Amino acid sequence: MGSFSIDVLPNPAHDHDTLLEYSARLKRLRLRALKGDANSFVSKYEHEADQPQDFWLNRLKADRVVHLILTRENEAKPNETFLQKEWVGFVVISVVRNDESSDKATDNLSADEWNMAAVYIEPEVRGQGLGKRLVRATIDYIKGHISTEDNKAAYCLTSVRHGNDNALELYQRLGFRIVNLNEHMEKDGKEYFMTDLRIDIQGEN
């Protein structure tokens, strides 16, 4: 059956071949998410399935974006490397640019405002609390990257498409609060209604 762990996807990758492998794996997971959980996303499988390789590589090379990868370990092979493990989920975290942070070095992930998006768990491993682990790992990651210059707390925003009640309930149980019940957005000519949530996060002492 195996155990699970969560790792930060290295950025930059060790070399170009490793980057290509990261890209291929994330592409497979992302497309499975869009196809299998279409009602949870505003992006469409049909739009992303035919995108060129650079589309996926650029996502990984973006500066101020972090991918947390959920992996399943083979208990018979306890010393597997990151790429030897099975990738079964991910979450994307990004630093929101603002006037102050835009003047800082692009490799500095310390900031006040963050966004959590694209949380996905493969169907065959759901029901084991892994979504909760990914969200908690997101909060912990942000805690470790809050700017301490002004001793201010940070906050993380996320949006849930109407009808995705499981995600909405999970986020609220973990401390997110609703800040907008009916956020309207348009993408690719279609209209969507979202629930916006926020959690305030104190840095590590």
In short:
By secondary structure, this protein is α+β, with helices and mostly antiparallel strands. The protein has five helices and seven strands; from the N terminus they run βαααβββαβαββ. Keywords: Acyltransferase, Transferase.
What do you see in this structure?
- With 205 residues, this protein is an alpha+beta fold.
- The protein contains 5 helices and 7 strands, in the order βαααβββαβαββ.
- The protein has a 7-stranded mixed beta sheet with strand order 1-2-3-4-5-7-6, with helices on both faces.
- It has a single domain (3-201), classed as 3-Layer(aba) Sandwich (Aminopeptidase), CATH 3.40.630.
- It starts with a strand and ends with a strand.
- β6 (177-187) and β7 form a beta hairpin.
- α1 (16-36) crosses α3 (53-61).
- The protein has helices at residues 16-36, 45-49, 53-61, 130-143, 165-173; strands at 3-8, 65-73, 86-95, 113-121, 154-161, 177-187, 190-201.
- Strand pairing plus helix content: what structural class? alpha+beta
Mean pLDDT across residues = 89
So what's the overall shape? globular
CATH topology: Aminopeptidase
Report, as a whole number of angstroms, the end-to-end distance.
Answer: 37 Å
Q: List the uncertain runs.
A: 101-107
**Domains counted in the coordinates: how many?**
1
Overall CATH architecture: 3-Layer(aba) Sandwich
CATH superfamily: Gcn5-related N-acetyltransferase (GNAT)
Helix content: 25-40%
Most strands sheet: 7 strands, mixed
Number of helices: 5
The side-by-side strand order for the widest beta sheet comes to: 1-2-3-4-5-7-6
Number of DSSP strands? 7
SSE order: EHHHEEEHEHEE
The level 1 CATH classification is: Alpha Beta
What share of residues are in beta strands?
Answer: 25-35%
Cα-atom radius of gyration: 17 Å
